[in-house]
Hints:
8 strands
Amino acid sequence: MDGSVVVMGVVNVTPDSFSDGGRWADTDxxxxxxxxxxxxxxxxxxxxxESTRPGATRPLVSEELDRVVPVIEALVADGARVSVDxxxxxxxxxxxxxxxxxxxxxxxxLADPGVLDVVAGAGATYVAMxxxxxxxRMADLATYDAPGGPDDVVTAVRRELAERVEAIRAAGVPDxxxxxxPGLGFAKRGEHNWQLLDGLDRIADxxxxxxxxxxxxxxxxxxxxDADGTPRPVGEREVAGHALTMVLAQRGVWGVRxxxxxxxxxxxxxxxxxxxx
Length: 277
Ligand code: PMM
């Protein structure tokens, strides 16, 4: 770690992830990618077998298990700290049995409340992300008041995450094991993501560490659009993501979920060297 920002490197084992085009779709390639991220200095490898891109179809439970379990086993054997990016209790349980220690649930327990019982039973760390619906419906639910309104995106996300915290506590997961995530891009339009980043302090005052995943997301592509409005392609958003990592480190986030671990490490070294940490 640099200073105290956890770098979570993304290992998508999906044929259709928007950000890496499914290049790591088979086990060996995903393990090799995870090893590279580990060598680059990832603190945690986040292994996921379900794409959440808009319009993606959900894999069968058996497909998701086949994708993530062998990758987790191999990376844990290498000494990696592994999280599993899943909304399913069966997958969370199998991943924890395979040696993962963190469950990263983009639905915060809404898609399958059984995830919370699995996490409580295993004593795992739980990342609860703000989410409203699966990707086929989430764009319709990106409805919030304008900033400053009674139900602006910061107020709504804060309230809905607080409700998740109540469910997490009710399942018996101790507060010390919980990390919250505002869920950039999930039932949020571009402007909502920027408003959330502006209002991150109000999410942080719920009292939990925050993880933020901005890496390669489309709101960065829109920010960097050409003069004719063409968004910057996914592979050319890295510098903007790194700039955001610097800002997030300054704001005291617990961790960042990123694709380019090496570049993120560089950013955090500069930040640490200049921030007196
Ligand atoms: N974003 C994606 C997937 N999983 N998990 C957390 N906790 N936070 C995120 O912002 C998040 C996530 C989608 O991005 P990807 O397709 O690049 O993995």
